[in-house]
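U., I forgot to send this yesterday:
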Amino acid sequence: MAQRETQVSTNSLPSNSSLWGFAAFNLVLLCLVSVWLWKQNQPITIPDALLNNEKIQCVSYAPYYKNGLTPLKIDTFIEPEQIDQDLALLAQKFNCVRIYSVSQGLDYVPQAAEKLGLKIYLGAWIGWVNADNDEEVNLAIKLANEYPKTIKALIIGNEVLLRGEQSEASLKKYIQLAKAQTNVPVTYADVWEFWRKHPALEASVDFVTVHILPYWEDDPQSIDHALDHTKDVMLLLNQTFKKPILIGETGWPSVGRPRQSSEPSLVNQASYIRGFLQLAQENNWQYNLIEAMDQPWKRTLEGTVGGYWGLYTSDLQPKFPFSGAVQTRQDNFKPIIFATLGAVLFFFIAYLLKEKRPSALVTIASLGSISGLSGLLQIEYLISACRNLQEWLGLGGLALLSHVIALCLILAISKPSKMQATLLKMGTIIFSLSAILASILLIVDGRYRDYAISLYLLAALELSIGLLLLKLEIEPKLKLHRILSALLLSSALYCLLLETSNPLSYVWVAINGLFVLAIWPKTLHPQISNRNTW
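Result:
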């Protein structure tokens, strides 16, 4: 089939009926997003944490919550003043903090904790490099001997066997060294499955420290089953081990991608933490929650969700109370402001284009409102997900492109031109290629990749259904649209196959299907196809 040339008619505008249909479509979208935001802002009643006015046992403390702070940089150093301030905050709600290393200034933590009456689970970080391990263990032993009343136990190594950085035999040597040179209890911490794979380690420690994280399980647990799962794991571990068990980490993320039916959210985080505290009290468990503050640096290792396990934000604000209702979002008037600004901006552009038709003005204003709301959600996603300049440029560029497409639709309504038609075509191809790349990343690295729904949804809807209602068409080259369509659908369906219990995987398939609709050639009205085909 011969390639058809792109044709544009600058004197053929969408009809009033097409414009009213397009306006109705955007108003429906506006209503749907508004209802969703309204529901997200509604307080949800969940059981209180019945602490009997007691403090929570323990919480993981890492001071790397400020911009630029990360334990991954060797020269990072935490000032004593920050540690003093952080521990003073945590001492109001917790009896104890767990730290994972004694380097980068964290050797000051026992001294700061002693002044506040806080207890410490003191960690020595064990990794690949034996010289670094020796330095960590020796300093941890020194601190344990200096602060025996403050340090509850030494935790020699954290998930070392899970990461495969040391053998069980070499790990035992570090543990035995610590036991021989200090009088405080000594333990090792790892996910519960790896403790069951290495039961002989029990003989080397004074108590068993396990991590139970329902979100990160190989079979991720929904919030409805998470507490039952934790209880079942503890029953199994109590049957496996004879020594006391400390739950060294348990918690739930507030932001990030769902894993199957395991969904991060503020309400789910509050629900799990409150429910767990009640279970711990009923079963007399010893525990440590993860974690005190959000850790932005963890997004580098674990994706968006890694940075949002804290009970406090990176601004040191508590995320939720331990009693009373909780709501996922607290938008107040933000959605109204963004929607109004979008409508006003687009209406102003229509004014500059000397657009006077009521149908066109209503259409443009409704498109502006949905574009404004989309911008709010996109900004929120970018702030939570972007880890470096490259991601800000790439993901932020996609968000910006979706609004460029919306602006091009204004021109299509009021002043069609070849340049605007070309921009729409290029935008469609860029979004299609980007969606294919996103699917590939979800397939090969899905554990730590997001379904960036907010970045794609506006463009997908407007380039497919929107143009269909306006009776306008984008027609890429015949071979290109066939290849893109096959890749879009096959990669998205494979994502669905990997996560059939994740609602977002179905939304992702739908978005990719909309891009297929946008790029697939069609003759909407044969009698005017030469005028309205771009």
